[in-house]
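> agent: user asked for a holo structure of the chain below bound to 2-acetamido-2-deoxy-beta-D-glucopyranose. Plan: (1) validate sequence alphabet, (2) canonicalize SMILES, (3) run complex prediction with ligand conditioning, (4) return tokens. Step 1... ok. Step 2... ok. Step 3 dispatched.
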Amino acid sequence: MRRLQKPKLLFAIVLLISVSLYLALFFNIKTTYRERMHALELLLKERLFDNATTAPGQNAASFVASTVSTSTSHSAMNTTKAYDPIQAALATERAAAELLRQPVVNFHDYEYLRNPVGACEVSETEVLFVVPTAPRNFERRKRVRAGILGKYVSAPSNNATLLFFAGAPNCTESTPKIQSHLDDEFRTYGDLVQESFVDVYTNIRLKAVSMLRWAVTYCKHAKYVIRTDDDVMVNVSRIVSALKRTGTVYTDFILGNRKDGWTPVRNTSEDYLKYAVSEEEYPNSTYPRFALGGLLGYPLSTVTLLYQAALRTKPLWLDDVYITGICASRLKVPVLNDTEFVFQH
Ligand SMILES: *[C@@H]1O[C@H](CO)[C@@H](O)[C@H](O)[C@H]1NC(C)=O
Ligand SMILES: *[C@@H]1O[C@H](CO)[C@@H](O)[C@H](O)[C@H]1NC(C)=O
Ligand SMILES: *[C@@H]1O[C@H](CO)[C@@H](O)[C@H](O)[C@H]1NC(C)=O
Ligand SMILES: *[C@@H]1O[C@H](CO)[C@@H](O)[C@H](O)[C@H]1NC(C)=O
Ligand SMILES: *[C@@H]1O[C@H](CO)[C@@H](O)[C@H](O)[C@H]1NC(C)=O
Ligand SMILES: *[C@@H]1O[C@H](CO)[C@@H](O)[C@H](O)[C@H]1NC(C)=O
Ligand SMILES: *[C@@H]1O[C@H](CO)[C@@H](O)[C@H](O)[C@H]1NC(C)=O
Ligand SMILES: *[C@@H]1O[C@H](CO)[C@@H](O)[C@H](O)[C@H]1NC(C)=O
């Protein structure tokens, strides 16, 4: 008799543990879900997203709005599935796992010419601002340091860091002068990362990847990364709070000024040559939805995924289409259009 009871008891214990684990997991997910839905409603109330266009699935506001309106009925999130926060997180997780199994096709192993390795430790960075800049843009960098952004990051309580990213000056007569000027800046401000690729317009993708790479390598404890150009004026505290509030809803996302259905410029006449993209480089007739590179925000976890995706995705030199469009769509990362991220050069 006793011999029979032992396995039964064991079985009952295992069953009990499994059931409790399952219930704990279920309620945990449910609570997270409810919290996120609540945060989503708050976001809407605060009018963070643009509601202008209403085609379903075409803009952030419409899918956010329809997600909220269906959240109480627990059903029919069919058309908005990709942007339901939980569904989006699962979809990204799956897509990322799939993508990471693929081989690296674009090694990005340029050496660092200048690297302020400790920049994120000094300020216990929570938000890292990355600004692509041409080596010769001394004046613009000066204005950024002295402007709203420079003032914001210099307040210790904001836990923010600002870094400029450049490549190597193209070899022209003035190169030694430009490089020694950069070195002076590096010594004075310590806010410049320089990789060894040649800094020319057609290499902007490499610069964009260099910013992702630096953030994931040297700024691991930051929560968010904001990318802005050296000639863009922004209300920093507003974009930071828009980003943080979106972060209470979504795990991975890109916040920016989104462009849907843009087509590649095929015209190679003089006027367009600068932007032209050949069919060989990009065969499809439209780009995936993407966010303009002039002002973007994303969590560090998304930056990590985008960096890994960029190593594994056929390149296109247009950096914003490539990173926030092509790489993001492979990862199924939501690209959210936000009114705060409208900017002017
Ligand atoms: C966007 O839609 C939400 C809910 O549908 C509404 O409360 C809010 O006022 C709208 N925002 C704007 C800017 O129209
Ligand atoms: C999605 O849900 C809506 C509303 O519940 C329903 O009217 C529509 O037919 C559904 N669409 C698909 C493709 O299932
Ligand atoms: C900066 O970090 C400190 C300590 O973690 C925190 O108390 C403070 O709220 C942070 N500041 C901002 C603007 O988030
Ligand atoms: C560097 O600049 C010169 C003109 O100043 C140009 O002819 C050359 O193509 C540039 N190098 C690269 C790699 O683009
Ligand atoms: C940024 O926006 C906030 C809130 O709307 C406002 O109080 C502040 O004055 C603005 N800052 C600048 C520099 O425009
Ligand atoms: C290309 O652009 C030029 C204007 O810069 C225009 O005259 C020409 O017709 C365009 N070519 C095509 C194929 O659209
Ligand atoms: C190009 O179009 C094909 C077929 O519609 C699609 O599978 C592929 O993902 C598209 N590529 C990009 C980069 O959007
Ligand atoms: C994004 O928002 C801006 C301004 O809020 C709006 O003009 C634009 O049409 C929106 N883009 C999309 C793709 O909905």
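> agent: step 4 complete. Summary for user: The longest helix spans residues 2-45. Residues 290 and 299 are 17 Å apart (CA to CA).
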